[in-house]
Amino acid sequence: MIKRSGDLFIIGGNEDKEGDLEVLSIFVEDAISSGGKIGILTTATGYPEEIGSEYRDIFLKLGASKVDLLHINTREKADEESFTNQVHGLSALFMTGGDQNRLSSIIGGTAFFKEVQKAWQNGMIIAGTSAGAAIMSRHMIVSGKTKLKHDKIHVEIGVGFGFLEDVVIDQHFSQRARFGRLLHAIAHNPQVIGVGIDENTAIWVKDGGKYFEVIGEHSVTVIDGCKLSFVDIADEAESDEVTITGVQLHSIAKGYQFDLENRKLIKKEKGSAQ
Fold first, then answer.
1. What pLDDT was estimated at residue 236?
2. What residues form DSSP beta bridges with 170?
3. Shortest CA distance to 40 belongs to which of 61, 69, 72?
4. Coil, helix or strand at residue 43
5. Using CA atoms, how far apart are residues 171 and 202, in angstroms rounded to an integer?
6. Would you call 20 exposed, middle or buried from its count of C-beta atoms within 10 A (0-12, 13-18, 19+)?
7. Strand, coil or helix: 101
């Protein structure tokens, strides 16, 4: 039997926690259908007990039978057998928002991460919101100012968890005017696909990472620089401007799907209620 990596739920942050909870409901339904428990990794946040308990209560309300809180705040803890053993019984792992640098520096390369990676390759679902979304891809935006008032755009790319290859994720996308910084990230790394996810919106990555579906309230912006015809990035000491042509831009609304392998929209069939 060929095993396939689990679904990914990559959430743009600030997801609804009091209304219809669409994004979180779909995640929990997927987790329940896989059997097992949901684990909540609180490493990114500075308020692990408060944030972890909030999500645990929501997941239980949505029908999860068992939810474990994983408060890992040091690399030493991330190598402890007690935490790696907890991964074995999980059907899904949810990573909270906060600071993606904490996730990469505390979790990356540890025994816990290796166990999570192995479980995901064998079908465990992984979800993340805000910082937990940014960490999902191999290329990760570590920091980056947006162009507000007279601020210069500066984007620093680091290494994420690698659940998605050749993709870089940006969250709170429209709400925090992050188009410019994602465009800069693509100008420096044209081989990757830039995916900007609005708040209370997510991409549901399926079929071993072959495609994603947009769920939630708003839309997802995809910037593809694979066929760039020209790019000129100014010396950042003098200017933050970029000249770039040949970029493919996609704005994808709820219910539509995007083919990550062929880098194109999956069009709905006429009359489809998808």
1. 53
2. 196
3. 69
4. coil
5. 9
6. exposed
7. helix
Q: What is the pLDDT of residues 199-224, one digit of tens each?
A: 999 999 999 999 999 999 999 999 99
The pair of three-digit structure tokens given for residue 159, joined into one six-digit string: 């290494």
pTM: 0.92
| Residue 5 Rama label (left phi>0; alpha psi -120 to 50; beta) | beta
Measured CA to CA in angstroms, residue 83 lies from 57, 102, 201 at distances of 21, 17, 30
Instruction: For tokens 């490493």, name the residue.
Output: 43
Over residues 53-75, the pLDDT tens digits come to: 999 999 999 999 999 999 999 99
Model confidence at 2, in pLDDT bands (50, 70, 90)?
very low
**CA–CA gap between residue 184 and residue 150 (Å, rounded):** 17
Rounded Cα distance between 213 and 255, Å, is 6
Question: Residue 270: its pLDDT value, please?
Answer: 54
HSE-up of residue 115 (Cα within 13 Å, Cβ side): 19
* Amino acid residing at 4: R
In whole angstroms, what separates CA 169 from the centre of its chain? 6
Q: Is the CA virtual torsion 48, 53, 58, 63 positive or negative?
A: positive
Q: Report whether 8 contacts 26 (CB < 8 A).
A: no
Distance CA 245, CA 228 (A): 6
Backbone angles phi, psi at 264, to 5 degrees: -155, 160
SS3 content of the chain, % helix, strand, coil (to 5): 25, 30, 40
How are beta strands 220-224 and 125-129 bridged, if at all?
unpaired
